[in-house]
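Example record

One chain of 382 residues, shown exactly as stored in the release files.
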Amino acid sequence: MHDQATPQYELVRDEDGLGRTARLLAREKVIGVDLEADSMFHYQEKICLLQISTRHRNFLVDPLEIEDMEPLRAVLEDAGVVKVFHGSDYDIRSLYRDYGFGVHNLFDTEVAARFLGETRTGLAGILESRLGVVLEKKYQKKDWSKRPLPDEMLAYAVHDSCHLIALKGCLERELSRLGRLEWVREECEHLSRVRPPEEDGSPLFLRFRGAGKLDRRGLAVLEALLRFRVKEAQRLDRPPFKVLGSGTIKALAEKRPMDRKGLKGIEGLSPKLIRAFGDALLREIRKAMALEEGGLPVYPRRSSQRLTRREKARVQALKAWRSEKAATLGIDPAVVCSNTLAFSLARACPATPRELDGVDDLRAWQRRAFGREICAVLSSCT
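Predicted structure tokens for this chain:
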């Protein structure tokens, strides 16, 4: 195992320092990037630290002390500079949400690990297996919005970016030997375009798992409770899940207690929470229960979501095929063909590889690698 002495880093805390850093980064061909945020501690999450590493230098950028982060836009959006992240989905969304930054020419080492068949795809596991580096993760869930950040947390942070370039090289060599490097590059190109969801005024229950199983009255209760949770989370400056857990919200929407006695049997609703929110929760439930039938919400269901008997048979055939193919390749079946893609293929039922071009969710690498096999599987079900 490698000695885990803390790599040297430069703490960037003002606009002048950020400008100098951005100019240095612009001369690089590849940089490693990570960030720390405060989503576990505040209602409106934000980026609290950016870690950026070149092959020889490490920068810790403090956006809470820098008013204008614009100098970093150029390098992050420069397609001539490879940006190496690990598990970048959240980071890409956060950079766009907070600063409007895009990330072009992304290489995600977590995606690469999945395409190599790794089951432990966290950064710590991949670094240990490929580079012999052991990471300390005890600061992973700390409040990164607090200032000043102690030296121990800064040291932790730099380790999350300083090994990424070396890790990229190692994983790329493995992917090239297996003929999968272009697969990963295409996945990373799609991943670089993810964006945070926009607030459009739609019901909150549409983003709540299990809402579709409730009746219309239950949906009304659920929506009232979710809006109450958001209001309290804003007032307390806490993440909504730290106000009331989703399991508790779901149980309240299903059981719909009308008095304090009924609240006592609800999962996750402690005496402390009942004292704090009990009366307010009961008010929300009672208001929803009093709504006229015509005012109750309806969970939207598209008829296109329902598969015909023949389409269901195609889905099962595709799942059987992907399991065999994944076992041969030594990767997770979902990498070969996700459930969403299986449904799209079952509906479209392309007869030839050329007809695959119009199938939603199908990547170009999947069409090249598996197109003929997919069409053969589908034709066997017709």
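Notes: The longest strand covers residues 30-37.
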